[in-house]
Automatic annotation (TrEMBL):
Organism: Micromonospora ureilytica
Cell cycle among keywords: no
Key word Transcription regulation present: no
Regions crossing the membrane: 75-102, 122-141, 148-168, 174-192, 235-254, 261-279, 291-315
Signal peptide: none
Entry keyword set: Membrane, Transmembrane, Transmembrane helix
Domain of life assignment: Bacteria
Name this protein carries in UniProt: DUF2157 domain-containing protein
């Protein structure tokens, strides 16, 4: 007696409907044309008895849907920009982590008027150690391992404030944590097969910041300039600006070779760079470092960043549709046929 095909067994099942829900990531016309084929392919690969798509399948489907939408907008450069933005974000976090560990966390808590957390000023020490581990993993075990460890570091960064509130222990201020979370989310797109330059950057960055911190402490006979998080807002704003400037510089250089991925990366990192300066900006705009002023400033930066990305995507989509329409409407002066290749451009 013939056994039913695995796909036939899953037709109409909860698993099939859950795979179909993931198709929302694709454009509507693509779903109608290829949806059955896509779902059938995934159902053909799952083991019997599974009721939910695996995390790998879900990420794969959502990522493919995003790429297809961006293809329709003429913005595939944004997909290519994600690994570049992730690499820049990770190295910025590694630099910030090394700095805060050596310049703030190991300083006498009395400078910050805080109760100590062991030999450290705050629970932030676990965050910065976590991001240094991510940097080491990206150098030694890039790809899926690095992305998994980065996801854990993001969760750790988010978890520290409520843990600090519940335990009564001090934690880093929000003007430090919010940009760290924003950059951490960007690191989830770390490349699967980075070159030796990208792999060597995190340990090199950590080493350079460590050397600079040691030299600064020696010059000040034990330190004194950066004794708490409250003494670092200006430096954070400079770090965000430097990160954005470097990525923009790389993007302009790649643009000269008809590669817009670097410019897309700069656009993606504009919001985290702005968040690094949110504390300074709120003081300049509202005259004081109040929580309300910081919240309004942070929200404004997020809205402006999202609006800027939306406007650029809309402009690229409009231009792409215009080019496609022109290609469809044009005819060959010799044979009178429309060029089929241009239609896929």
């Amino acid at each position: 007696m013939n056994q039913p095909h695995p796909v036939q067994e899953q037709v109409g099942s909860p698993l099939e409907s859950r795979y179909r829900r993931l198709l929302w990531a694709y454009p509507g016309d693509y779903q109608a044309e290829r949806g059955d084929e896509i779902v059938g392919t995934y159902l053909d690969t799952v083991e019997p008895g599974r009721r939910w798509p695996s995390p790998h399948d879900a990420v794969d489907l959502l990522g493919a849907g995003l790429r297809e939408r961006l293809r329709g907008y003429g913005a595939l450069g944004l997909v290519a920009a994600l690994p570049l933005a992730a690499t820049a974000a990770l190295n910025t976090l590694v630099a910030v982590a090394a700095f805060f560990l050596l310049q703030v966390e190991v300083e006498d808590p009395r400078f910050a008027r805080l109760d100590s957390v062991g030999p450290f000023q705050t629970l932030g020490v676990v965050i910065w150690l976590g991001w240094l581990v991510v940097g080491l993993t990206a150098a030694v075990l890039p790809g899926a391992w690095a992305r998994s460890v980065a996801a854990g570091a993001v969760l750790l960064t988010v978890a520290v404030p409520p843990v600090a509130a519940l335990t009564g222990q001090p934690g880093p201020p929000l003007f430090v944590l919010i940009p760290a979370v924003a950059l951490g989310l960007a690191t989830l797109a770390l490349p699967s097969h980075p070159g030796w330059v990208a792999r060597s950057l995190p340990p090199l960055t950590a080493g350079c910041v460590t050397a600079a911190s040691v030299a600064l402490n020696a010059a000040e006979s034990g330190g004194g300039m950066f004794t708490s998080y409250g003494s670092t807002p200006e430096l954070l704003a400079m770090a965000g600006g430097l990160m954005f400037a470097l990525v923009l510089f790389v993007g302009l250089g790649r643009a000269l070779r008809a590669d817009d991925a670097g410019l897309w990366a700069a656009l993606l990192l504009a919001t985290p760079a702005g968040l690094f300066g949110a504390n300074q900006l709120s003081q300049g705009l509202w005259g004081g470092p109040t929580l309300a002023a910081f919240a309004v400033t942070t929200g404004s930066i997020l809205l402006v960043g999202a609006a800027l990305l939306t406007v650029v995507l809309a402009g690229r989509a409009t231009r792409h549709r215009t080019v496609r329409r022109s290609a469809f409407d044009s005819t060959c002066p010799t044979c009178g046929h429309r060029p089929e290749v241009a239609a896929e451009a």
